[in-house]
Request: fold
Amino acid sequence: MKVKDLRILKLLPLAIILVITIGFVYFTGQLERNPYYNEQIQARNLMEESMKAVKAYKEEAGLLIYDYDYFNTGLLGEEYNELTTSLGSLEAKRTSANPDMAALLVKMFHQVGLKAKDHLAVGFSGSFPGLNLAVLAAAEAMDLDLTIISSFGSSTYGANQEGFSFPIILNRLYQDGYSKYKNDLVSLGGDDDVLKEKPADLVKSIVDQYESLAFNLYIQEDFKNNVKDKVDFYEKKKVDAYIAVGGNISFLGIYEKDFVTKQGILTTPRLRRQSYTYDYGILDYFLEKDIPTIHLLNLKKIVSDYGLPFDPIRWPEPGQSIIYYEKTYKTYPAFISLGFSALYLIFIAKDRYKDDKNN
Reply:
């Protein structure tokens, strides 16, 4: 056997030991509760309470709870009506009503470094009332400070029932003590965030209703100014993070399709531009400033990333989903293996030195 082959053969035990160590560490990993497990449970409970309240409000108003709302949550609206501003996925809307979404939001908030009293800028459309409630519940469980801009617009199966848009839902929850957060600013949503695609008489009826409820209603047809004014509204306080739920165009900007595959916690702005301008929307604005930013729209991707089921036939019991846990690994076998490997390499090096000296 050649000398070179012998030297390679001497490394074989080291390779075997390293492979065995990696396998041992991996397969002996254990699931342990997140350090913020109690916050997650609290958020889930808060979301469930809000959901029950919303369902009661709908029943009180004589609004339908639809057959496709399998879990009887009351958070799913009509398939399509004159109030609907865009298309959406029924399966995604059912998924968003899972109370574990509040626990997921607690996890996301911790992942971006939020802590009690931090200021979270929030953008809500009416498309995912379930996710909106999840954000509110997670924020309350973590004692965050919120500035909320919510909008009327909703995609199919969202908050699109007559007289029951999301700003109205949140207003009622706040008045009845189910949420400590309220609408700070309300816009219309839809095209250019002013419902440009809807008949004038319909828009007027919505505006009249919102004004009768004393909402801080914001209407600005110039899109760049619309985005700038909202950013200025958020930045009356130092913004520690920004989250957008749904597809309001002021969140996404006029090049909204660029964000389709960028979901959950975002890290970089879009690449198809030279420098930021307000027509790129609020998400890009905060990303450009390196402020932690979260976007919730593509539910199928988000739940897949975090190990939650998409449109499940049953919900897991509280605290049972993978999002409440993290996998931990024993580190001492790795350190022992590294120590042994270092000694073995020193031994081989000395042996090789002797062989070279003798030759």
Observations:
- The first strand starts at residue 30 and ends at 33.
- Strands lie at 30-33, 119-124, 145-151, 185-187, 241-245, 264-266, 293-296, 325-328.
- The longest helix spans residues 332-358.
- The chain has a mean pLDDT of 88.
